[in-house]
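Technical note accompanying the year-one report. For the benefit of new consortium partners, we illustrate the data format agreed upon in the data management plan: each record pairs a sequence with a structure-token string. No post-processing was applied to the example shown here.
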Amino acid sequence: MSQDRLPQNKLTPPIAAKKPQSLILHNDERVDNYYWLREKENSDVIAYLEAENFYTQTMMQHTEVLQEKLYKEMLDRIQETDLSVPYRKDEYYYYSRTEAGKAYPIYCRKKGGLDAAEEILLDQNQLAEGHEFFNIGVLQVSPNHQLLAYSVDTSGAERYTMYFLDLNTSKLYEQSIEDTYYSFAWGNDNRTVFYTKVDDANRPFQLWRHSLDVPIAEDILVYEETDEAFHLSVGKTRSQAYILLELGSMITSEVHYLAANNPTGDFQLIHPRTDGMEYDIEHHSDNFYITTNDEAINFKLMKAPVSSPRKENWETVIPHREDVFLLGVSAFSNHLVIYERQRGLPTVRVQKFATGEEYEMTFPEPTYAVYEGNNPEFNTKTLRFNYTSLITPNSVFDFDMETQQRELKKETPVLGGYDRTLYQSEWLMATAEDGVQVPISIVYKKGIQKNGENPLFLTGYGSYGYSYPAAFSSNRLSLLDRGVVFAIAHIRGGSEMGRKWYENGKFLHKKNTFTDFIACAEYLISQGWTNSDRLAISGGSAGGLLMGAVVNLRPDLFKAVIADVPFVDVVTTILDTSLPLTTIEWDEWGNPNDKVYYDYIKSYSPYDNVEAKEYPDLLINAGLNDSRVQYWEPAKWTAKLRELKTDNNVLLLKTNMGAGHGGASGRYESLKETAFDYAFLLDRLGLGD
């Protein structure tokens, strides 16, 4: 970047002190000069982060007008006073609504019909008063609709405190339960509840049973998972018949079940954990339906009698197929809904239990996302689902599974005259270096020329088998309307093209994730969509690892990079079993205590591979209370980049000192963070207003 494009108030960036720490494993020494930044209680660490924040604020000062303009644009597209589509459960219709000027939703219901009087269950705005950060985890009404269980996190560290509210009297129970996690289940007696607790590393490892009539100190520990590679969760079948205790690592699962009418009984095991075997449970009538990868890499569907659900009694319902990835099933009284991925896109089939007849739902666009909506009722012929694409705002449909008629209940409004006919989306294929075809979802405003001069914003993830959805964002219109092309690289490590797509982007194949992304970027350049001086990229968490890896491999290919809460210090982090992102991660990346994996991970770990060379413009975002990717990973990466990079390009570290992995809570503060990121991107691409 030429010197005249730098802001005039350019400061000398903060320089972190170097305090060499020797880390030795497998007779290999790594010297980490910035290991000391892990010391959160050290005032020098906080001072460094605050100095970086001041530097970032000063370096971005010339974009403040643009930030405000972007924020207003994005806010003006949102219907601030709005209502979710109510869903029915027994006599009640539940929904949430928002009010202009208020950052959080208000949770409500009506009894008997939508014309009935509104009852406010919980106003998150009132609860959030006085808190810089506020998030709700559990929010579940009891089976008789008289009690509400909810949990809150006020730091972003994802350790929740649970409360119980009597909806008849609007009074809280005196007792609360600390250090709980996201999952929860009510027994059918409306008094017994099951909740999970986290250990020091934020791993949900215990299942507890509590009765609302009994002191918390007398709660019963139902199960404790001692294997640090496994997380624990609890849930309930849609039939309301069973409570499920689910235990899972990245590649192995185990499920126990308990009749919800007998919540003080003993959980029964369906099938003991077998290394590499995963399975999920759905209940219908006298059977459990089991989605499993047992001798079926793309998964198959089995069923077994509830009375004897061990594996020897499993019968095939949907066999394994090489070209179809079975994501899971959803059971209703008369219908089975089957979610799959085929040719890279999500598909939905509906099957009648009585006859076995089935049909496939169709969707109109070349790239899209579809997922099940809120369907709490078992005895219904209506399936609620959500559909969205890069052009179509999130749309809630009610689908009659008998007549196959779909009713659009609501499309998220985009104010300001959004006209989808002005935009075009496409499904492209890039060729990876090993010849594999890698999908790209792309959207742009009609009228652009493929002359190699368009600014382009490319993103990706490529880990944990997560398929990056081609979903709509009204915020993104602020980029598209300025001529920016937006693209998603559906790289290996996700599951877009089936389970093998995931397997070929993990362990000792992880580098395929990075080279796939580079191949997508090179393809977009070769096809005239953009050029390397107009190409910006972004990714968060494991997608931040992607960002760090590709800028080490091909810094010349990209103009600007946004890395959100990036997982970049891979070797050190997953050797530290005191951290949340450790033991369970060995099933994703490999265990570096094994030299083969140590050498391989070290060869791509972004922090370990920073070199003395030129890097693109970089904005790195972090959260001080992040329990998934600790703040010191982006901080250390920034410090090492400052030490070694040989260019004058911008390098900014922005740490939210009151939030965690998900960034700011509340819709207005979240919008401001997006406006900041977009202002950086547009400014670096020469599109600052």
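Partners are asked to follow this layout when depositing records. The first strand starts at residue 21 and ends at 25.
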